[in-house]
Amino acid sequence: MSLDPPPYLSSLQTNIRTRPIPWEGAVRARTITDHDLKRIKGVDKVRKEQRRQTVESDPEPYRSLLLGGQNEKSVLESAAKRPEIINYILVLANDLINDVPDFGTELLKHSDPYKPFLPLLTHSSNPEESIPLLSSTVLSSLLSIQQTRTSSWTPKSSEALKKLFNYLAKLTQSHDSGLQDIAVLEYSSVIRGNESRKLFWEQRKETLEPLMDVLRSAGGLTAETASSTLFSGSTSVRNAADAGISGGVSLQLLYHVLLVVWQLSYEGEDIGEAFDKEQDIIALYTHLLRLSPKEKTTRLLLSTLYNILSTNKSSLLPVATSVRLPAVLANLKTRHLSDEDLLEDLNHLDEMLSDYTSAQTTFDEYASEVQAGHLRWSPPHKDASFWSENADRILSENKGELPKKLAEILSKSWDEDKQVLAVACNDVGWLVKTVPEKRTALEKLGLKPRVMDLMADANETVRWEALKAVGEWMRYSFGS
């Protein structure tokens, strides 16, 4: 999963490498020592192979240079008032980690390998400045190595990761997409294991929320239109030539955000239900599948959906069917796709959903839609035969679970999708009309006063459906 660094970061590092540093003056000023200078010059402006040989032959002096040792400060601490030296050392540290295969592991042998770098994350109130940015790059490399090349994860690792997440979360809110991309790539590099993904999820308000905003923006969704668009039931898939992403989101940033969410989805068993409840992840990813501009983004979308749905079948497959994911997959299968991993994920997801939907009756489909919590004008709602056959079952099955869910749906304002309220009022009206002897049970759930309130709603369709539902109650008002 190794990815090239973003151009913004590469350009910054190259610029810093070429800046002249008055090292001898720094020694005279006692900012650094003669011993520091000797070690720096041993790897400064030399070929990568020579640098690798120098460090591999004796890594301890370079570990002490960066992290400090017995009776020795880290050069980052001793040069704290010289930002040009700190910048240079941070770039050098990153180069050594990348150019010398085992140097990162050597650094992690130190009792506190993160200590010199963590304060630099808050070196400036502006997270876009070079020192915190370069420090985060070194920290993400070390935290990644700790998960991929060692078997240890310590409380200090968790504390360092939390502080790194706090910094990266600020960077994802930058208006510069290049800086956003740096943060997202660093997220990807550090959520390699179970512990780090759990920490990412625990801080999801700061870490995950801005990434979901990027995905909603890429899907052309706004706060006002997201709900109605995601649950509209559209199944069309654009051709590759016509597909597009919105909101000024670059394909590179979109891919990297999808990559992070895909990594997080491996915790699907623990977070899947909450993820969908908070972010409508199933509906959002179904929507993005219709727009996906490249096979590599489609592959990540499908794989993420499979990871989440396969570990939450009973609770989230109903959501997937209610947003018409099976039909979207069927349309995808008509396209000329060549990526083998994509095709494998597509087939696995399609088979899982086919097995589920083949066992569903019309009642099951209706129940799944209600349980998903986002109603639309699917066929059962206006079908008199459906209500005559199923109304009594709707009221009684699982101790009246579905009417309770309707009451929960109606208790919300749905300002972003008034259609939901209109459909819910329609359903309440059918229940009263079809099984009037059980209308008292509906009243106990607070449905009657809520529907009466909705007769004054600003939305004309909601008012009309509420009026019809109250009319069914009025038939029996004098006899009750």
Describe the fold and architecture.
Helices cover 67% and strands 0% of the residues. It is mainly α and 480 residues long. The chain folds into three domains: 1-193; 203-360, no CATH class; 377-474, V-type ATPase, subunit H, C-terminal domain (Serine Threonine Protein Phosphatase 5, Tetratricopeptide repeat). Helix 11 (177-190) runs parallel beside helix 15 (251-264), helix 17 (281-291) runs antiparallel to helix 18 (295-310) and helix 24 (401-410) packs antiparallel against helix 25. The longest helix is centred in the first third of the chain and has 19 residues, at 130-148. It starts with 6 loop residues before the first helix and ends in a 6-residue tail after the last helix. The model is unreliable at 239-243 (pLDDT under 50).
